Amino acid sequence: MKKTANPANVAWEQADLTNHNSVAAVCEKYSPDVVIHCAGIAHQKVGSVDSSTYMRVNSESTENLAKAASQVNPDVRFIFLSSVSVYGEGPGITSRKGATAQKRKNYNGIGENGKCQPSSDYARNKLDAERRLIALADEGILNDLIILRLAPVYDREWSFNLNRRVLAPLKITYIRFGSGRQRMSALARPNLVHFIEFLIKSKLATDAHRHIGRKKEKDTGVNILNVCDAEPYEFNTIIQLFKSCGARPNRPVIPVPLPVVWLATRMAGCLLPDKKRWLHSCYDKLASSLVFNNEKMLKTGFKPRHSLQTIFQSADFAD
What is the reported pTM? Predict the structure, then answer.
């Protein structure tokens, strides 16, 4: 992302999220009404980060931060940015418990009650962090917890999660895996920012109602929401937009049969047995549609304003 000027109302603090005392000192200094936790390890090369480091940084530090924030403000709204990767991947994902099939062709997928089967250290520790936070809510330590399971995030300047589905290494060519009609949910970064702003404003409105004597509706204090653009996208659509937008290379498209990808990932799994499950999931990401139901998000009243088309074709986002 581009660096912007430091606004007058923004303060930067350096802290070690894995150190409870360090985090507690920051929370005591600011006594936050809302905590948005998005820090963690992501997008690392296979084997470059061990599972214990993922656990310490992505999971245990999340619990540390939640405890520290709730100690100084029991009513803090804790917004945790998780990932749809907690559900896992594969062709059976939309047949699991929690999956729905709406009448509209492009509006289906697994819902928040779906079974979670994460296949990577990153996803497993996101799920573990979720469970730690829910346990704190069950214990009455966290009274306002929102878990956002984000679809792959992109913007005009950074589209790694889309690139690896349609671009060859070094961006030398586009690759159409199979028919290219596989669909994926994705999330424009501006939509994520606007939704978080929406949640913060709803927090302020709830607090105002409480202060003037209106009784807050009883709830569990825990909300889990899939967050993605209004509709999923076909791989073919992603390729077409990338080729025509001017912000991505206009390269030829090479078709690759899915059996070739299947064979390559199975052979790699035999050579790297410790990464076998992850390698198989890579095939699933390319061969299957990974669509997640965002109906619960939409029922909050939030309407995503952006899509692949607005991000990559609108003059507002052009260089």
Answer: 0.84
10-residue stretch averages of pLDDT, the chain, 319 residues long: 56 86 93 91 66 83 95 95 87 45 53 89 91 95 95 93 91 94 96 96 62 45 93 96 87 94 91 82 86 94 95 69
Q: Which two tokens stand for residue 62?
A: 């999340």
For residues 60 and 234, give the distance between their C-alpha atoms in angstroms, rounded to a whole number: 37
Tell me the CA distances in angstroms from 41 to 56, 61, 163, 313, one per residue in order. 10, 11, 20, 31
Q: Say how far apart CA 274 and CA 252 lie, in whole Å.
A: 35
Query: What distance in Å separates the CA atoms of residue 225 and residue 218, rounded to the nearest whole number?
Result: 19
- What CATH number does the domain located at 20-317 have? 3.40.50.720
Instruction: Output phi, psi for 222, to 5 deg.
Output: -125, 125
Retrieve residue 168's tokens: 């060859």
Name the residue ranges covered by the structural domains of the chain: 20-317
